Amino acid sequence: MTWSGVLLVTAVVWAVSLIRSVRLRALVYSLPLPMTLALVSSGHRVEGAQVVGVLGLNLFFVTVAFTYQRLRWPILLADGAGIAVYVALSAGLLAVGIPFGAALAGTLVLWLAAMLLLRRRAPARPAPADARPSVDARRDGLPPLLKLVVIFVGAVLTTLLGAVLRGMVVTFPYSGVLVAVEARRQLVEFSRHFARNSLALVGFLTAYHYFQDVSPTVALGAGWAAFAVVAAALHLPLPSVGPTGPGRRR
Length: 250
Prior knowledge:
Oligomer: single chain
Transmembrane segments: 48-68, 75-94, 100-118, 148-174, 218-238
Order of helices and strands: HHHHHHHHHH
Strand content: under 5%
Keywords: Membrane, Transmembrane, Transmembrane helix
Number of domains: 1
Shape: globular
Helix content: 55-70%
Radius of gyration: 19 Å
């Protein structure tokens, strides 16, 4: 990825570091900005492996959350474990080659299964605001300018690593490597929100795939439109049926 990609990754992570809402953090991170730059700068096509790569993004965060919170690894070591899992998955996908239709169907099935599982495991009622741990209020001690420098250096390093992944560079978690460090105190909650938002990334890649033979510009436009539609649908408030709902006697 070019220097513009490094600056974009830096900007995304910097924005995420300023956001206190975990839900909004996950939404900002899920924007397909690094994907767009990777597609423009590398010229790679979107095929089945890239769609499955979205699952790899989720697996990256699950690995980091598990090793950091359950195994008590240092966050940088947990980050390295997440990268290793993604690289191993990428090597397998590039070696096998998956038809796009099969990859899309499998990804959608796994996404739906994950959403059902997360819904079952979710608490029946959210904890009151004053009873929740005030992790968002905690600050990590780094001055803003120093934090920006650290983010920029990390973006350069992850960009160099992503250069060896060939077509899987499209879904490499460039900003995710740094976002995981920034959101380390809310990794489980962040992973849940990102897992939900990742369907919009599947929409982006699907639209790009079907329009990439027309032109890259048209494909990117279609991809962003699909992302916006799916993301909006995911965040629409669900209708609630009150005590005087349909079919209820007064």
